[in-house]
């Protein structure tokens, strides 16, 4: 598309050849076509002048509009400045209010932190209590399941008709325990009496020692008498021989021996008197009713004690045999129950993770008597 923006005019008609005139065309451009070139030029000139005038008028109008817009913008700017000043004042007031609120909110923030800590602590406490309650609930459910299992076993045991036999065995065991307690009491009484008899035998041994000391004393007395006789014979020999010095020496030696023997005799007499008093006392004690036929009674009690010990051993063997029989019976029944449970499990459960289930009973810790 062809466009005409400008046209240079120089040396045509009223246009001087020295000066250059440039005509700027506005868009859209209208071309006037005619037969006379002069007329066309005039028309073009006047048309261009009219366009220039219109352009200047339009530009003046635009300038007035721009001026009005500038005035309006200035007013708007002044208004905005005033609004900004007011907003600055409001902002300053707001900042002051914020500072006051900060001062007011400082203790509230501390209170908020304290309440948050209390909330966290309470939350942790509640969670802990919930966990404990959950654990207690699981434990309670487990105990309920165990009680139900034990109850089922008890019902099965009662239904099997073995309660009567078990009661009979318990009754026999109770009778055996009562009899054993009576035997224990008799055994304690016999041991007490045996202790008294042993004490008496110990006292009897002291009496025997006293008697032996008395016999030794009498033997010493006889020896003293024999020595006195020998002294008399020696004195007769001294008189017959007449050797004074040798006889005096022998006499002194013999006198010393006699003195020693006399002192021993005195001590022996004191010991014998003590032994005799003890013998008299024990003889008096033996005459009492509680020691009458003590040897026979001792032998009888000894026989009864040995018999009771043998009976206790037999009862202990019976108890152990009964305990072992009950344990074997319990094991057999548990095997039968586990066999039934295994068959039922394999018939009902089709999973591959568990082959079978069974009930186990730990026999350790069962009380046994030794």
Termini separation: 132 Å
Residues in β-strands, percent: under 5%
Query: Total number of helical segments?
Result: 4
Structural class: mainly alpha
Spans with pLDDT under 50 lasting ≥5 residues?
364-370
Q: How many β-strand stretches?
A: 2
Strand order of the largest sheet: 1-2
Can you lay out the helices and strands and say which pair or pack?
Blueprint: E1 6-9, E2 21-24, H1 37-159, H2 163-241, H3 244-286, H4 294-348
Keywords: Coiled coil
Coiled coil: 77-132, 166-244
Structure overview:
There is one protein chain. 81% of the residues lie in helices and 2% in strands. It is elongated. The two termini are 132 Å apart. The model is unreliable at 364-370 (pLDDT under 50). It has three domains: 6-123, no CATH class; 179-292; 307-370. It is an all-alpha fold and 370 residues long. The chain is built from four helices and two strands. A two-stranded antiparallel sheet has the order 1-2.
Task: For this entry, give a set of tags.
370 residues; mainly alpha; 4 helices; disordered C terminus; coiled coil
Précis, in short:
The chain has 370 residues and is mostly helical.
